[in-house]
Amino acid sequence: MKLKRFLLRYYPPGIILEYEKEGLLKTKSMDLLDLTPETNPDELLGEIRRSEPLVTESRADQVKQLILRLQQKQGQKDQPGFCFSKGHTAEILSLCFNTVGNQLVTGSFDHTVAIWDVASGRRVHILTGHRGEISNVQFNWDCSLIVTGSMDKTCKLWEAVSGKCVATLVGHTEEVLDVCFDLRGQLIATASADGTAKVFSSTTHQCLVTLQGHDGEISKICFSPQGSRILTAGSDKTARLWDVQSGVCLQVLEGHSDEIFSCVFNYEGDTVITGSKDNTCRIWY
């Protein structure tokens, strides 16, 4: 295994390791759930090095600096709340913080997306171009890009700093109900009322694979933390696990008696939870 880089996760606190194994790029999570501003960073670093072989002596100082950044974030005083009263002209359906926590993106029924500065409550950019209500918005991991899904059957990719639209992702024949990035920000997954999901490259903007199998609209989609699996939930009362590269359905999760509105992996990627209109949640191993 060859370590490529670290990714910092502020909440819950942790460090993501991106590494190469047998020619494949993979990720694993080091959860630091007990970290506090009072934690001794040198002692924690020692524990990490004893349990994680990828953290070698040459990488030790880098990991320590990441621990200190997490502690610095934890020690910051809470910012006062704010209300952006002059922004959207219709309901806000989706919102998302960036991973640093200093910006917020919102998507509205008024067909626009807004980027906000959290500290001041000031609107930084208004993103226009969609011709339908915004169903979902999300930052990528390094806060450089934003993806938006819309009832106009498209997704759009935006530069977070400039607010410029860099690509429109097309191919769905009905409304796009959900969108998400993978952990590395290299892939984008979309879920649609047309009963299909798609995986796009965030760099070439090309559709790489279409996921077909649901009998009805797909309301939710997410990547596993490792990026090798996709989880979808639909109105056909099932959730499905897919292989990202091939688009093959690996497993159908059946048991709910009504449509499923929500689904998510745990941080290890070995457990799934689904939430349904039947008033139940189910945990799948």
From TrEMBL:
The keyword NADP does not apply. InterPro entries: WD40/YVTN_repeat-like_dom_sf, WD40_PAC1, WD40_repeat_CS, WD40_repeat_dom_sf, WD40_rpt. The keyword Magnesium does not apply. Keywords: Cell projection, Cilium, Cytoplasm, Cytoskeleton, Flagellum, Repeat, WD repeat. PROSITE patterns: WD_REPEATS_1, WD_REPEATS_2, WD_REPEATS_REGION. It holds the Pfam family WD40. WD repeats lie at residues 85-126, 127-168, 169-210, 211-252, 253-285. GO terms for biological process: axonemal dynein complex assembly. It is found in: Cytoplasm, Cytoskeleton, Flagellum axoneme; Cytoplasm, Cytoskeleton, Flagellum basal body. Its main location: cytoplasm. This is Dynein assembly factor with WD repeat domains 1.
